[in-house]
Design a protein that fits this description.
The complex is a heterodimer of chains A (about 250) and B (about 200).
Chain A: E1 13-22, E2 27-33, E3 45-51, E4 57-63, E5 72-78, H1 86-92, E6 98-105, E7 119-124, H2 128-140, E8 147-153, H3 162-168, E9 173-179, H4 196-202, E10 211-217, H5 218-231, E11 238-243
Chain B: E1 25-26, E2 47-52, E3 58-61, H1 62-67, E4 71-78, E5 83-94, H2 95-99, E6 108-113, E7 118-122, E8 132-137, E9 140-141, E10 151-153, E11 166-172
Parallel strand pairs in B: 1-5, 2-11
Antiparallel strand pairs in B: 2-3, 4-5, 5-8, 6-7, 6-11, 8-9, 8-10
Classes of the chains: A alpha/beta (about 250), B mainly beta (about 200).
């Protein structure tokens, strides 16, 4: 059972890079085969460790974007120009390479179909990753939990997992996008940062008590979580995951 | 013997490597990590209390708390999400000052905070000058997203042991794992021994 995987010591394991696919101009999907992977829960993350020839090491955490699926896991890596680890993962790493990782980690920002819903997922950029794991798990489990996803991206081309989200929409999953910098010709969707009015339109009413998961850069998560509390959503139902803009 | 990452050089720490625990990197920024929305408790409703294994629970209002002797400390902080920040400057009230008037047989403590967050430590890890309740950062009031109006500061442990929005300490005879400690994170959290997760 995935939930017990974290009980023992989380050992560093050698994973094989199976697939690296550009998802947007700045984000790549990387699929690993991890022999002995004991499974994970949607929303958890892994730690990745790089070691230079002289023994210098760097570690970073990445949310798992895939639903539990045997010994395969997928992460979505956004290339940060001043980053230490992400440019290596997006530019240097090749299928067939090996990498050290350990996980799964984290027992709070997680969702299981048995928890029900409704679900409200709010993603800023590559913050979609752990929410994608939930959306994929929901589909794989044929869950009919009413789910709304609000995705904030800079442009149409930078929507992470856009095609797959299009395919998974329907069957109780509604996807809304806001494009904050540039929009394609004829765009009729939102064109501004997520705010209280947008959340009031997209989200379930507070008295439906949706389980809320918000992931993105810190200012995004601060703004969204505060607006949701202002709208009357209970703070205890709002789970947040944040990433800093530096160093990752 | 660990795997060499072909072609990886790394950026290396631009500060003193001896001050950076294993697996950490230095950041000039102050990233924010928390599990839920930021609480905003008005100062007139804020208090700090010490409860649990003591004869008489103690409680300070914001005004009373501000009147306690405070100290400025400069410390390095280490977050379990891998960033470390050197030479951060805080002002706060030492836990020794708060416990000065308290008789207790407790050996453990749980920090409790607005929003329901808790974290547990041995009592000896917050005494002897090792911890304070901080209300200023870098010469100004502590911002809400960084835990203001006041947060714990226990810099020798990973930073989740320094509860934001702290409202008090519960003194306990036995250990009682807190929020992250029941969610996969290490019970003690020493960054120099890289005690990030259960079993580390």
């Amino acid at each position: 059972m995935a939930g017990t995987a974290v009980l023992g010591r989380l050992k560093w394991e050698v994973a094989d890079v199976v697939e690296i696919v550009p998802e947007t101009p700045r984000v790549k999907r990387i699929v690993f085969e991890v022999p002995g992977w004991a499974g994970h829960r949607a929303g958890q993350h892994v730690d990745i460790r790089l070691t230079a020839e002289d023994g210098y090491r760097a570690e970073r955490s990445y949310s798992i974007a895939s639903a539990p699926d045997g010994t395969r896991i997928e992460i979505a890596v956004e290339r940060l120009d001043d980053g230490e680890v992400s440019p290596y993962l997006t530019d240097e790493l090749r299928p067939g390479d090996q990498i050290e990782l350990r996980g799964p980690v984290g027992g709070y920002f997680v969702w299981e179909p048995t928890e029900g819903g409704p679900l409200l997922l709010v993603a800023g950029g590559s913050g979609i990753a752990p929410l994608m794991a939930m959306i994929r798990l929901r589909a794989a489990a044929r869950s009919d939990v009413e789910t709304r996803l609000l995705c904030s991206s800079r442009s149409w081309a930078e929507i992470v997992y856009r095609r797959e989200l299009d395919q998974l929409s329907g069957d109780g999953l509604t996807v809304a996008h806001t494009l904050t910098r540039t929009q394609p010709r004829g765009w009729t969707g939102y064109t501004r940062r997520v705010d209280r009015e947008m959340l009031a339109e997209v989200a379930q009413a507070p008295d439906e008590s949706p389980l809320v998961y918000v992931c993105g850069p810190t200012p995004f998560v601060e703004a969204v979580a505060t607006a949701l509390v202002d709208l009357g959503h209970e703070a205890r139902l709002i789970k947040t995951e944040r990433f800093g803009a530096t160093g990752a | 013997m660990s795997l060499i990452s072909r072609g990886f050089r790394g950026r290396r720490a631009d500060g003193d490597p001896a001050r950076v625990p294993p697996g950490q990197y230095l950041t000039p920024d102050f990233p924010v990590l928390s599990a839920g929305p930021t609480p905003h408790t008005p100062l007139e409703r804020w208090d700090f209390s010490i409860v649990g294994e003591i004869d008489e629970p103690r409680r300070w209002t914001w005004e009373e708390f501000q009147a306690l002797p405070s100290e400025e400390v400069t410390v390095d902080i280490h977050c379990v999400t891998k960033w470390s920040k050197l030479d951060t400057v805080w002002r706060g009230v030492s836990v020794d000052t708060l416990l000065n008037e308290v008789e207790t047989s407790a050996e453990y403590v749980v920090e409790f905070a607005d929003g329901g967050y808790t974290t547990n430590l041995p009592l000896e890890d917050v005494t002897g000058g090792k911890a304070c309740v901080a209300f200023e950062y870098d010469g100004g009031p502590l911002e809400p997203e960084h835990g203001g109006p006041a947060r714990m500061l226990v810099p020798h442990l990973y930073f989740w042991k320094s509860a934001k929005w702290v409202r008090g300490l519960r003194l306990l005879a036995t250990d009682e794992p807190g929020f992250w400690e029941v969610n996969g994170y290490h019970n003690y959290g020493d960054p120099w021994r890289e005690q990030r997760y259960w079993g580390d």
